[in-house]
Amino acid sequence: MNASEKKPQPRWTRRKDARPEEIIAAALDLFVERGFATTRLEDVAARAGVSKGTLYLYFENKEELFKAVVRGNILPVLRHGEALVESFSGSSTELVCQLVRGWWELTGSTKIAGIPKLVIAEAGNFPDLAKFYYDEVILRALSMFRKVLRRGTDAGEFREVDADHLVHVALAPLVMLAVWSHSFACCEQKQLQPQRYIDSYLDMLLHSLRRPQLQEKAHARKKP
User: Fold this and answer.
1) Contacts of 86 (CB under 8 A, 6+ apart)
2) What residues contact 116, with CB distance under 8 A and at least 6 apart?
3) What mean pLDDT comes out for the span 186-215?
4) Per-residue pLDDT reduced to its tens digit, 1-12
5) What pTM does this model have?
6) How far apart are CA 37 and CA 35, in angstroms?
7) What does pLDDT average to over the chain?
8) Cβ count near 152 (within 10 Å)
């Protein structure tokens, strides 16, 4: 048999250092499509093009694979946001807009947005995973936004608010948009427009945060 007649090699003969990323990508697809409980490791391995034994070389069990999916897809977005908060030189209003629109571009408009819905739906059956997600994602997101509120208040741009509670109120509509896109969106006759949703959300949030005198200036600028 000459070289041109050789049989194609199985997919799992690809570079060893590429396998974890391929497995994580396949797991993200299946977790979002099927949920955590009904996703089987053998299906993830098949989607990734590796053997189930190869999958176990990198991930001890399904729980560890899920954690790798979160750490490989959601935490980089959080780190990006945290770095932006630390380095941003513009107004806090501009910072809020960049963070929210950046979240939509990097997470909300992608399949990653299906992970919050999965965690909410299955938290009761898998409390350890819910706790992991709360500790590594939710607490960091709340802390980051709390820092933005404090930045705006210290600069005299935002009014004094109950930041510990407002961060939950502020982030809930974004979580809802992610959940909606992976649930009730299929039922709508007229699809929700995410960009218009975000525009409305930012208008409402920033209007509620501005100091009264800044509200008057913003209103005056809008007049013809």
Assistant:
1) none
2) 175, 178, 179
3) 88
4) 454 454 444 444
5) 0.84
6) 6
7) 89
8) 22
Q: Both 152 and 212 in a single domain?
A: yes
| 29-to-68, 102, 114 alpha-carbon distances in Å | 13, 22, 9
Q: Map tokens 């350890």 to a residue.
A: 128
Give the separation between CA 125 and CA 130, rounded to whole angstroms: 9
Kindly report the backbone phi and psi dihedral angles of residue 7, in degrees, each rounded to the nearest multiple of 5, phi listed first: -70, 145
Q: Same domain for 48 and 150?
A: no
Q: Which residue's entry shows tokens 């750490």? A: 71
> What is the domain count for the chain?
2
Q: Are 20 and 57 in contact (CB under 8 A)?
A: no
**Residues 161/149, Cβ–Cβ less than 8 Å:** yes
Is there a domain that residue 44 lies in? Answer: yes
User: Which amino acid is residue 113, in one-letter code?
Assistant: A
| 184 and 118 within one domain | yes
- 160 with 93, same domain: the answer is yes
Domain extent at residue 104: 74-222
Alpha-carbon gap, residue 41 to 62, rounded angstroms? 7
Please give the torsion angle defined by the CA atoms of residues 67, 72, 74 and 80, in that order, rounded to the nearest 10 degrees. 140
Q: Is the pLDDT of residue 178 over 60?
A: yes
Q: What is the pLDDT of residues 38-57, one digit of tens each?
A: 999 999 999 999 999 999 99
Bridge partner list, 182: none
Cβ-based neighbours of 3, under 8 Å, separated by 6 or more: none
pLDDT average, residue stretch 109-127: 95
| pLDDT at 84 exceeding the cut of 70 | yes
Q: Are residues 81 and 176 in the same domain?
A: yes
